[in-house]
Amino acid sequence: MENIGIGAGMAALAFWGFIAIVVVATIWDGIRKREAQHETLRRLIESGQTLDQQLMEKLSLAGDSGNKRPDRDFFVTAMWLLPVAVGMGIFALVLGSAKPEALMPLLGVSALLACLGTGWLIAAKISARWVEKDSVLEAGVVQSTLIER
Asked: What burial class does residue 3 get, using C-beta atoms within 10 Å of its C-beta: 0-12 exposed, 13-18 middle, 19+ buried?
C-alpha cells in the first residue's frame, strides 16, 4: 500500500470530484425546474387566468417525472445490481486462478454489490407497502369527497 504514489491519489480525487459534480448538478437541475414551475404559475396569476385543478396537475407533473411508484425503481435497481454481483464473483474466481492476490479484493467488491442489491430489494418491498397504503388512503379521500358532493 505504501507504493501507491501520487498518480493513484490524483485518480481517486478525480473520481470523487466527478461524483460530487454529478450530485450538485442533479440538485441544481431540480431547483431550476421548480423555479420554472413557480415562474409559470406567477405569470398565469398575473395575467388573470383562472387556475383550475387540471391545469395545476399538468404543471406539477411537468416539473416532476410523474413517478408515483419509487418501489418499482428500487426493484429495477436491485435487478441490475444482483446479477452484476454474481458476475463479479465469477470474474473474481476466474481472475483469481491466474492472479491469486486479486481474488479477495474482487470477492469483496462482489459482496458489496450483493449487499447493495439486497438493500435496494428490501427498499422496494418496504416502499411498496407505503405506496399501497397511500393509494388506499387517496382512494378513501376521493370516495369520501364524492360522497360529500
From this structure: exposed
